[in-house]
Amino acid sequence: MRRHAPILLGLLVVMTAEAATIVVGNAPTRVRLRVGATGGAIDVVTFSVPAGSVGNGTPVAGTVTASGVCAANNVLIDAEARATPADSRTATLSADSSMPLSSGADTIPFTEIEWTASGYAPITIPSGAFSGAAGQVLTSFQNSRRARQCHAFSFRNTQIFGAGTYIGRVTYTLTMP
Amino acid sequence: MKRWLARWFPGAALALLSGAVWSQVVIRLDDSASPRQRVAVTPQWAFPDADEASQQLNLLRADISAFEVRLNTRAHLNRDVEIYLRLPLTIAGVRGPDGLRLEWQGRGRFVNGTIRSGERALVYRGRITEPVLAEILDLRLWLDGRQIDGGFQFDPIFELELVR
């Protein structure tokens, strides 16, 4: 039985030292949202409804001047939220479509516009339609994740509106409280 | 014959084992003479445009330039030694061994290397000729954001083994 004693001595570690300490601070929270192609310009989606098709229920696909990494006439929605540790916080991507498109005194609610999601799998920002509300949730996800999708917009064309050029803006917001 | 083996083999094996274990006596070196005893660093996300599917999305990096260590080697003058750099096995705020990886480059006599929590790597092999062994290291910390709770701290450990 005593033969085991040398092994115990052999494992001796002498702990006599003082040590420098490396202090690692909190990682910064990072939230990033990109809507549309690169550059500072606001992307414009244009719907041209032929005079003979007004309000006939056939959707009208939108066209986009620059689609970037997405297929033609798609708008990139790229949302990313990072924090530590994983799955500790929830990021929410929302859209504000509460202000309708307008042409003088005439308006078209954004509820007439819908979109189809494609481009990246799995689908993280799914197909849908604008609700006309200020805080429509498009998707939510936990950190650290990246939700990225290409959206092709279309005008539902289910109602007759006065002739004119209607302009409006949807604002996307990404938050991670 | 079998009885002879049964009587002597355990003893012989134990002798060999003892010799091997004795060579692993580890001495933690005092680095209290190092100029900076407390180094603070803030990690940054290493890949600004990482894909969701990649590990890069959660990878953080922190660089510490010119981290000077002065190791008290007075007790080992004129001895042939190996010096290792070790990270503690458990670090409060780091959830697992993959949460932290330390990379370094020596500007002088230390060899470059990389280790995770609980690991060690050789930084120096040779004769001790000075009472204080000084070296400047450029450190890079790689953190997996999924495995850290926030800020944390740790002590790099320098261990010495005598070469027989």
Cα separation of the termini of chain A = 63 Å
β content of chain A, as a range? Answer: 35-45%
Principal-axis shape of chain B equals: elongated
Number of strands of chain A: 15
Q: Report the average pLDDT across residues of chain B.
A: 86
User: Helix fraction of chain B?
Assistant: 10-25%
Largest sheet of chain A: 6 strands, antiparallel
- Order the strands across the largest sheet of chain B as they lie in space: 3-4-9-6-7
Order of helices and strands of chain B: HEEEEEEEEEEE
User: Low-confidence parts of chain B lasting 5 or more residues at pLDDT below 50?
Assistant: 1-22
H-E string of chain A: HEEEEEEEEEEEEEEE
Mean pLDDT score of chain A: 88
Largest interface chains and counts = A-B, 38 and 56 residues
Number of helical segments with 4 or more residues of chain A: 1
Structural class of chain A, please? Answer: mainly beta
The share of residues in helices of chain A is under 10%
Quaternary organisation = heterodimer
Low-confidence stretches of chain A: 1-16
Radius of gyration of chain A: 27 Å
Strand content of chain B: 35-45%
Number of helices of chain B: 1
Defining traits:
heterodimer, A: 177 residues, mainly beta, 6-stranded antiparallel sheet, 1 helix, 3% helix, elongated, disordered N terminus, B: 164 residues, 4-stranded antiparallel sheet, 13% helix, 43% strand
Tell me what the structure shows.
The complex is a heterodimer of chains A (177) and B (164). Chain A has 177 residues and is mainly β. Chain A is 3% helix and 40% strand. Chain A contains one helix and 15 strands; from the N terminus they run αβββββββββββββββ. By secondary structure, chain B is mostly beta strands. Helices cover 13% and strands 43% of the residues of chain B. Chain B is elongated, with a radius of gyration of 20 Å. The longest helix of chain B has 21 residues, at 2-22. The chains are: A mainly beta (177), B mainly beta (164). Chains A and B meet through helix 1, strand 1, strand 2 and strand 14 of A and helix 1, strand 1, strand 2, strand 3 and strand 4 of B.
